[in-house]
Amino acid sequence: MSVELCGVSTAYGGVPMLREIDLTVADGEIVCVLGPNGAGKSTLFKTVAGLITPVAGTVTIMDTDVATTGTERIARLGVGFVPEGRRLFPGLTVADNIRLGHEAVRPDGADLPARLTAIGQLFPRVIERLGQAAGTLSGGEQAMVALARALIGEPKFVVMDEPSLGLSPKLIREYFDILRAIHREGRTILLIEQNAEMALSVASRGYVLARGRIVAADHAEALRASSVVRSLYFS
Predict the structure, then answer these.
(1) Is the dihedral of CA 58, 62, 67, 72 positive or negative?
(2) Listed residue (173, 166, 91, 104) closest to 132, CA to CA
(3) What angle (nearest 5°) sits at the alpha carbon of residue 42, between those of residues 129 and 6?
(4) Which terminus has fewer CB within 10 Å in the chain: N or C?
(5) Which domains are delineated in the chain?
């Protein structure tokens, strides 16, 4: 199992955020978590990443308890993270931003040139801009750099928070084509996303989050037809 949340609840200053979340992603799956603004999706991402400690329940990634591992060590378990808003360092070059993702897994820098060559197959535009400051890129290019940074360490499991946010419809389609490609390479993906149409087009299963609770969970086609999803997205 790549990730398992059992009875996870979180709070900010005593205010409940996530409530008794049970969620699993098996090796080789693409699983999406859908939800409107304010549903708790980013809180879920931060909890999986170890940035928020649950007040109840457990988060297990790659058979390791996140609470006892520490956020800084999660990448070395074979996990890549793509946070909401890209979270690039705008003053650093594209190459340096990507290098940070590699160093989180391999501090000695071993095999970085080979990994950049492999990344170039997926992101030719990124490789063309390695010497450019990340802050000068377009939103779509920054999204690709953030994904390249997550993939440079060859993770087995990738967790993504709202990757389509701010992208044009054309770039969203391109981005999701890349998700399909990296899944075909054998990676497991947890996709936390507001764009239900695109998320359900790539995921095998999904969960719907509303007001901090899982309100529906099923196979993608069943979720697409469910009254819960239709009322939130397609009404």
Answers:
(1) negative
(2) 91
(3) 125
(4) C
(5) 1-75+188-235 (3.40.50.300)
